[in-house]
Amino acid sequence: MKSRLEKLFSDESKWNLAIILAGTNDLAFERDYKKICDALLEVHQTAWKHSCYTISMTVPESDDANENKQCITRRNSVNDYIRSEIGNRNEYPYAFAVFDLNVKVPYNNFKHNYLTKDDVWSFGDFHFAPQGYQLIGRLLFQDCIKPFLESQSKSNISSSAAT
Fold first, then answer.
1. In 8-120, beta strands by DSSP E
2. Which of 12, 34, 106, 125 is the most exposed place for a label (fewest CB within 10 A)?
3. 47 exposed, middle or buried (CB, 10 Å; 0-12, 13-18, 19+)?
């Protein structure tokens, strides 16, 4: 993922926000959680070195009946790392927000006004279906992207007033 992100930053475009959801497949393939955490931080650092803010998304739940306890423990450890380390704005000023996908769109206790669990999940209940990604997009906009845009707008107004 880091190399793909580097390629995006290599063109002349100026990116100011990256939304990063990673680690799900690594957990499924039983990769060590410390290696996953190191890789996640590296991806974020790639964006930060280009003055790009990041929104980090936690790894979502999946069907716990089909997950072993080790996988659940590793997922929880990765998510704790995302919340406490990658989301630490004091240490990483370009870490704009953490979107807690694990909490916002839970698999095991999913409740929604008009969507069912089958509408939201696909691929063996490990990845999202199109309607699931639409739901995530709406929640992500409301909780993170809109505040980001508002903060950038205020920043631009402050910069203009200073000159």
1. 17-21, 53-57, 95-99
2. 12
3. buried
pTM value? 0.84
Beta strand segments in 27-109, E: 53-57, 95-99
Residue 69 CA from chain centroid, whole number: 23
Domain boundaries, the chain: 2-152
HSE, side-chain direction, 13 A CA sphere, residue 29: 7
Residue 157, classed as helix, strand or coil, is helix
> Strands of 95-99's sheet, edge to edge?
17-21, 53-57, 95-99
Flag whether pLDDT at 160 surpasses 50: no
Is 150 or 155 the better-scoring residue by pLDDT? 150
Topology of 2-152 in CATH? Rossmann fold (3.40.50)
Which residues touch 50 (CB under 8 Å, ≥6 apart)? 9, 15
Q: Give Cα 80 distance to the centre of its chain.
A: 13
Cα 38 to Cα 83: distance, rounded to the nearest angstrom: 14
Short-list 110, 108, 107, 129, CA closest to 120: 129
